[in-house]
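Journal club prep, notes for RB
We'll compare a predicted complex against what the paper describes. Inputs for the protoporphyrin IX containing FE case:
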Amino acid sequence: MTDTTNNEATSSGGCPFHHPAPATAAAAPGDAQWHGAQMDFSKSMSYGDYLGLERILTAQHPLSPEHNEMLFIVQHQTSELWMKLMLHEMHAVVANIQADNLSPAFKMLARVARIMDQLVHAWDVLATMTPPEYTAIRPYLGASSGFQSFQYREIEFILGNKNPNMLAVHESATDNHARLRQALHAPSIYDEAIRLLARHGLRIAAERLERDWSQPTVADESVKEAWLEVYRDPQKHWALYELAEKLVDMETAFRFWRFRHVTTVERIIGFKTGTGGTAGVSYLRKMLDVVLFPELFALRTAL
Ligand code: HEM
């Protein structure tokens, strides 16, 4: 928000090394001055007020005496913030596809993919945590695990990886549970894309257009044929073709995230069980096999 690359410091008499500028003749005694910037926020909204920084920056509560726990907390908290933005975009994508409003949906899908890319790179920071550093904090984590991230589960649901069993973890948190339930029973982004194919006149089996949305995506021959038609004549179906490629982009970025998670986890805890109670790396490896948009990948072999 603030431009810290201001090169006018010297020409305006200020210090290029960010020492306070000398007070101008117009300044009242005791008034701080810097390049005309507003300095008094006793009566107006500041940067920190707008962003709620007081709450965000006081929400890190390490339980151990270990230096490295702060990294662990900040990495998870920032991931959750980015997930919040992804969900904000994804819900809007669903609404825009439903309304046949594809251009804004494309922009949002591109944004989601770039957020995922960024979360993929974020693993580099966590990978600086060594096994002994993690082992020192592990006893303080109790049974808490990313497995219980309700935002992550909502992302999975809105992408079509539905699993009613995942609701149980959130039963004690009423709002999160209700939100997840709603996502479980609503059509996913991919379900909406398939309904769009039908609205564009492509033949989709009736049972694929109205089904029990709480079930995971299962590959469907009519959907594969419809996407094949799109890919065989992109000029004729440009909007659908563009949508398909945006979805593939997003799934690819998500796969990278899963992959970096499991490799970082293996690097840090090896094959120990997870704090959430699963077998750990072997569980996470199984999740690598999840395919969100099966026909979009299958059609490539058929082209
Ligand atoms: C040292 C760091 C980390 C370790 C050792 C670790 C380990 C694990 C393990 C073993 C699991 C399987 C569930 C369990 O039994 O606990 C898991 C799941 C999960 N973790 Fe991590 N994790 C780490 C960092 C992170 C970070 C930074 C995030 C970002 C939010 C994250 C998000 C998740 C999610 C969403 C799941 C559920 C995956 C699924 O069910 O498909 N983890 N983690």
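Talking point for the session: Residues 1-14 have pLDDT under 50 and may be disordered.
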